[in-house]
Amino acid sequence: MNGKRVFATRTVGRVPLGHHPRGSLKIRWDLKVGGHRLKPGKYLVTLRALDRHRTVLGRTNQAIVKVARTSSAS
User: For 36-64, what is each residue's pLDDT tens digit?
Assistant: First the structure.
């Protein structure tokens, strides 16, 4: 592929981050999807803002999140 790596991706799931007021905000995520902590590896993450009808209002650029190891504490 012309010297570029092409990674296979699959959907892991959605993470509801709750309701937030308009404007800038900080988001904290415990790396759990569907109640289970992500396994070590690299994940492509896109944040999307939805209205109450689940219409996408905006989204961020994709970012790679690297999970190095999981902790034994929940």
Answer: 888 888 888 888 888 889 898 888 888 88
